[in-house]
Amino acid sequence: MTSIDISKLPLWVQERDTVLEYSHHVQWRNGKKPDYTRSNENLTRQSICNHPANSLETLVQNLVRTFDIEANFKTNPQQWLSVVQDQFYMATNNGTHYNLNDLIASGTYKLLIGNTEHYQASEENFETSVNLFHTAFPDGFLWEVIEVYSTPPTINFKWRHWGYFKGNYKDYLPTNQMIEIIGMTVVQVTDNFKILSLEHYYDNTKFLEELTSGRKLPDIPVKTTITEETPNPSSIKQKICGVLKGILGRGKKQQDNNVTASRCPFANLVR
Predict the structure, then answer these.
(1) Which terminus of the chain has fewer CB atoms gathered within 10 Å of its CB, N or C?
(2) Each residue's pLDDT tens digit, 80-123
(3) Are residues 127 and 162 in the same domain?
(4) Structural domains of the chain, count
(5) Contacts of 185 by beta carbon, 8 Å cutoff, 6+ apart
(6) Does 53 lie in the same domain as 174?
């Protein structure tokens, strides 16, 4: 591929902060555009790649990051810039092809992972899935392109996804260790770099095994304590009987004389 001047190319292959700056009248999830300040700071410290500004690696990285913004935060598919809306699909490990509406409804985590031993996509929705991984990785789950192997229109590239496991994953305690995923993607693009398809390939069980490698949260038994607020039925019965005995005990002699006539309904309880 000849030299690239990314600044002269469409918005969707620019740096993501530039994409957000020029995104107007967008229907954002939660009503506001995302803020990547902390993510950018962590990328500066933790990235292992420093691609040249006008390299193919930078272009692909920018394009996929724009797609990620749209997949997670744009709720109107007609406002997505990075894809050909009526042709796009995404698949993982030769699995189901998902369209834009699928992504908006489910999010990327659910569709990229699927059903595994430690994560059941069928039991999650967009909100629960995002909360699950944001809790496990409170400092973010970062992504970058490592290497690009082919040029447009069919671009093959290698990437890494990583974060520090500092929060609980379900009922598993954090290890505070870095968890890293290495994968490959084949992206088909148009002449102006809009995405036609994304096909991801990676081991979707390895990082879940690392998330469940630590200790589990201890089971806390629920204790039932009988208090004045939750009285014991047996003690209530004893108190009632005691009161009745006291009442009926007074003037027992008179009661004995008249028991046949009066026949107190509680007499059999205290005789």
Answers:
(1) C
(2) 999 999 999 999 999 999 999 999 999 999 999 999 999 999 99
(3) yes
(4) 2
(5) 64, 156, 157, 159, 198, 199, 200, 201
(6) yes
Please, what is the angle between helix 252-262 and helix 233-249, to 10°?
Answer: 100
In a domain, 54, yes or no: yes
Range of the domain at 12: 6-211
User: Which CATH number covers residue 103?
Assistant: 3.10.450.50
CA distance 53 to 49: 12
| Planar angle of CA 237, 240, 242, nearest 5 degrees | 110
Specify whether 256 is located in the same domain as 202.
no
Name 245's Cβ contacts closer than 8 Å, sequence gap at least 6. Answer: 270
Please tell me the pTM assigned to this model. Answer: 0.80
Q: Is 154 helix (H, G, I), strand (E, B) or coil?
A: strand
pLDDT, one tens digit per residue, over 16-63 is 999 999 999 999 999 999 999 999 999 999 999 999 999 999 999 999
What is the full DSSP assignment across 164-194?
A: E--S-BTTB-----EEEEEEEEEEEE-TT--
Do the domain assignments include residue 225? no
Same domain, 59 and 168: yes
Between the two ends of the chain, the Cα-to-Cα distance in Å is 106
* Cβ pair 16, 66 in contact under 8 A: yes
Q: Band of the pLDDT at 69, cuts 50, 70, 90? A: very high
Rounded to an integer, what distance in angstroms lies between the CA atom of residue 165 and that of residue 185?
Answer: 25
